[in-house]
Amino acid sequence: MKIKVIMGSTRPSRFSETPTQWIFNELKKQNGVDVEVLDLRDYPMPFFDEAVSPSMKTEPYKHPVVKKWTAKIAEADGFVVVTPEYNHGYPAVLKNAFDYVYPEWNQKAIGFVSYGSVAGARAVEQLRMVAIELQMVPIRAAIHLPPDKWVPVLIGKAPAETLFEAVAVPAQKFIEQLLWWTKALKNARA
Q: What is the per-residue pLDDT across 76-102, written as a single tens digit (0 to 9) for each?
C-alpha cells in the first residue's frame, strides 16, 4: 500500500514538519506500507484557474508542477494530511492542492493529523467535506495535537516525544483505520 503524507503548510515558520516526520515514521513501521512525504513547498502550483473543473477535464494539465502533483496523487492508495488550523479553517495552499486533482483522489482513504487553537478540529471537519466531494473515504479517527502539548514543542520548551506520547493511543487507532480502509479500497479498485 502506498501512503502519501501531505504537509499542508508552506509557511517559513511552520510546525507541520514535526508531526509530519512523526506520522511518517509511525507508518514506516507498518508491514506492507510504502510511505512518502509530499511537501507542498515542492509543488508551487498557481492558484486554480483552469477553464474546466478537474472532474470534467478531457486533456492533461499543461502546467509542469500540476502534472507532477497529479502523478503523485495518482500513484497513492491512501493519504494522511498534516494540517494547521488558520482562522477556523485549513490553509489556502492545501485547498488549492486538492482542487487541482479529481479522478486521482477518487475511492482512496484519507486521514488527518491536525494542530491549532482547538487542536485543528475545525480544519479537519471542513477537510472531511472536501474529501467526500472528491469521492474519497475520510476515516473516522483523526490525530488532534493538543495546544498544551504542541506549543511547548514549537517554542523549544518541551521535547517532541512528550507531544507524541500524549497521542499514542489515538495514533494507533488512526493507523489501524487508515490501513484497513486503504487496503479495502485498493482491493475494490482492482
A: 999 999 999 999 999 999 999 999 999
What pLDDT score was predicted for residue 31? 96
Q: How far is CA 105 from the centre of its chain?
A: 12
**Considering its fold, how many domains does the chain have in total?**
1
Number of H helices, E strands in the chain: 7, 6
pLDDT for 51: 83
Threshold 0.85, pTM exceeds: yes
Grid coordinates representing 47?
A: 492558484
58: exposed, middle or buried (C-beta count within 10 Å: 0-12, 13-18, 19+)?
Answer: exposed
What is the 8-class DSSP label of residue 25? H
Q: What is the CATH number of the domain that holds 97?
A: 3.40.50.360
Q: Which domain holds residue 157?
A: 2-189
Q: Which long-range contacts (CB under 8 A, 24 or more apart) does 159-165 make?
A: 160/18, 160/22, 163/18, 163/19, 164/22
What single string gives the DSSP state of each residue in 112-155?
EEEESTTTTHHHHHHHHHHHHHTT-EE-S--EEE-HHHHHHHHT
pLDDT of residue 169: 95
What number of residues does the chain have? 190
DSSP H/E element including 7:
strand 2-7
Asked if 135 and 108 touch (Cβ cutoff 8 Å), the reply is no
Q: Which residues, including other chains, have CB under 8 Å from residue 118's CB and lie 6 or more apart?
A: 85, 147
